[in-house]
């Protein structure tokens, strides 16, 4: 996932406007600033443990992940092979209800999480927390796999399938229907409806602001930077407008086709962008292969005996956990929207597929970024660490990674720019769908309602390309993470439902009721 400001990823630089556009932006931000600051202070409020201060929402997410890991008997490890088999289509009956296969559902969800958080966020993590933060990012990613399993199983369990075969799922559905099942009576019904509406509002707001506007803005900023700021006769504002319109046309063409179209695109885009980025990391690592043992040693030793000044072991642990939690979205309730569209009649199957998401996002992609930075050990990174230790500002995380790429070839940062652009576009596509599901839940289903949303979403793609609206984006980040509070409460309440679904599916596997199919 990508973010707008320092709470999640730190140091990200937004495109700046001038003239009339700057005046418009300043006017909007001046109105939104107090709202944004107040709400962000609550959601990203700090608590102190053993002298280390960190956002309470991180503890909320990590504790839930640890609880679900224990309750489900370390399902992320015991069922890992089965998860891979499900993604490959070995147990997928193409005639089962749903719109997309397991691989497409996984790719669609991953396209919403794999982004600048894996690049900029990791750069910040290993600058603030040192190499040891990488170890704790991996641990958090492994724990988060259990949370994904729980929420995505519920997403399929309580999804709604329309007469035309289209699927609606996500926290707004399993909170509304699942909580009253577990808490009978008026209280359960009211609680479920209130949490469902709040979830839909939060998802819709972030989809338009953080999942759309910010991605468009960052993509243009990266392209402008790589061209040296030369925007020709159009000027910066004109070039941003043209770029925004072209991007909106591309995004609109995909999201209008629904989850089937999104799944078809992301199932190709996500592997492509992952291969490009991971290959680039591997090249940097390969060139510095002699440094690998030392780097791995630094990552492990730094996790338990960090250098003085990084806040001790607890400080490094918190930095790693924070960046991982902000990257893989485990517990936020967004991913179940995509996973709910899968073709299956066994909810637990998609929960098992979904647990691979934090593994790919955090354990693989984030670790590759961290290893690249630690191995390259650029002077920029070393100086940045000293700057942080001295109480200075944290540098742009993208720059930390880019400098590491440049140790191989001067033009290698262009590869990073391509990856950033692909990550941002895939995020817009997926969050366009998430927002659409939330919109239809709030304002009613129908072609007209769907068309209105698509137009609104694409218009904000253009707006995001020319305006940064920093305070609006700060508020969007806080809104999304506030969703984790309500979502995880619902997950705790519905744990017995997930346990029954998992036991039922395992029994069907044991008795042969679920049979193997050829790869879909």
Q: Uncertain segments of ≥5 residues (pLDDT<50)?
A: 2-17
The count of domains is 1
CATH class: Mainly Alpha
Number of strands: 4
Determine the mean pLDDT.
83
Order of helices and strands: HEEHHHHHHEEHHHHHHHHHHHHHHH
- The whole-angstrom Rg is 22 Å
Family: Belongs to the alanine or glycine:cation symporter (AGCS) (TC 2.A.25) family.
Pfam family, one: Na_Ala_symp
Protein name: Alanine or glycine:cation symporter, AGCS family
Keywords: Cell membrane, Membrane, Symport, Transmembrane, Transmembrane helix, Transport
Plain-language structure description:
The chain is mainly alpha-helical and 520 residues long. The chain has one domain: Amino acid/polyamine transporter I, CATH 1.20.1740. 74% of the residues lie in helices and 2% in strands. It contains 22 helices and 4 strands. The strands form 2 sheets. It has a two-stranded antiparallel sheet. Strands 3-4 form a two-stranded antiparallel ribbon. Strand 1 and strand 2 (52-55) form a beta hairpin. Helix 1 runs parallel beside helix 21 (470-493), helix 7 runs antiparallel to helix 16 and helix 9 (186-226) runs antiparallel to helix 21. The model is unreliable at 2-17 (pLDDT under 50).
Topology:
Layout: H1 19-43, E1 46-49, E2 52-55, H2 56-71, H3 75-78, H4 80-87, H5 102-113, H6 116-128, H7 132-157, E3 160-161, E4 167-168, H8 171-182, H9 186-226, H10 235-255, H11 258-287, H12 292-304, H13 312-328, H14 335-339, H15 347-354, H16 356-376, H17 379-389, H18 397-405, H19 413-443, H20 447-466, H21 470-493, H22 495-511
Antiparallel strand pairs: 1-2, 3-4
């Amino acid at each position: 996932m990508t973010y707008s400001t320092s709470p999640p990823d730190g140091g990200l630089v937004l495109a700046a406007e001038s003239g009339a556009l700057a005046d418009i932006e300043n006017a909007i931000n001046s109105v939104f600033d107090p709202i944004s600051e107040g709400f962000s202070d609550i959601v990203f409020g700090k608590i102190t443990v053993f002298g280390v201060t960190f956002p309470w929402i991180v503890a909320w997410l990590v504790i839930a992940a640890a609880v679900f890991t224990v309750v489900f008997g370390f399902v992320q490890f015991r069922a890992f092979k089965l998860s891979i088999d499900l993604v490959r289509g070995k147990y997928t009956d193409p005639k089962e209800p749903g719109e997309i296969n397991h691989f497409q559902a996984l790719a669609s969800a991953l396209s919403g999480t794999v982004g600048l958080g894996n690049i900029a966020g990791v750069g910040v993590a290993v600058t603030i927390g040192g190499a040891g933060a990488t170890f704790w990012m991996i641990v958090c990613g492994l724990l988060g796999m259990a949370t994904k399993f729980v929420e995505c199983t519920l997403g399929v369990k309580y999804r709604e399938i329309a007469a035309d075969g289209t699927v609606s799922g996500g926290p707004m559905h399993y909170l509304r229907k699942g909580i009253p099942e577990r808490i009978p009576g008026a209280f359960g019904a009211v609680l479920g409806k209130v949490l469902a509406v709040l979830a839909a509002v939060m998802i819709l707001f972030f989809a338009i602001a953080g999942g759309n506007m910010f991605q468009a803005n960052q993509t243009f900023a990266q392209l402008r930077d790589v061209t040296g700021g030369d925007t020709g006769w159009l000027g910066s504002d004109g070039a941003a407008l043209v770029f925004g319109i072209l991007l909106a046309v591309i995004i609109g063409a995909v999201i209008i086709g629904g989850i089937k179209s999104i799944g078809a695109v992301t199932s190709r885009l996500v592997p492509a962008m992952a291969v490009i980025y991971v290959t680039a990391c591997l090249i940097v690592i390969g060139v510095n292969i002699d440094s690998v043992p030392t780097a791995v040693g630094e990552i492990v030793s730094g996790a338990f005996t960090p250098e003085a000044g990084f806040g001790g072991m607890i400080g490094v642990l918190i930095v790693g956990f924070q960046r991982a939690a902000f990257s893989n979205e485990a517990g936020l309730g967004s991913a179940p929207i995509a996973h709910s569209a899968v073709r299956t009649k066994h909810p637990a199957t998609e929960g098992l597929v979904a647990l691979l998401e934090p593994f790919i996002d955090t354990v693989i992609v984030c670790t590759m970024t961290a290893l690249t930075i630690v191995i390259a050990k650029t002077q920029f990174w070393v100086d940045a660490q000293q700057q942080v230790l001295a109480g200075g500002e944290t540098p742009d995380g993208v720059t930390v990674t880019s400098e590491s790429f440049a140790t191989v070839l001067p033009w290698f940062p262009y590869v990073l720019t391509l990856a950033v652009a692909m990550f941002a576009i895939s995020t817009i596509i997926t969050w366009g769908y998430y927002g659409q599901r939330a919109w239809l839940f709030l304002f009613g289903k129908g072609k007209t309602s769907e068309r209105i949303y698509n137009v609104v979403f694409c218009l904000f793609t253009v707006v995001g390309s020319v305006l940064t609206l920093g305070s609006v984006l700060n508020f969007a980040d806080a809104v999304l993470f506030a969703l984790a509070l309500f979502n995880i409460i619902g997950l705790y309440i519905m744990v017995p439902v997930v346990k029954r679904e998992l036991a039922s599916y395992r029994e069907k596997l044991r008795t042969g009721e679920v049979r193997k199919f050829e790869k879909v």
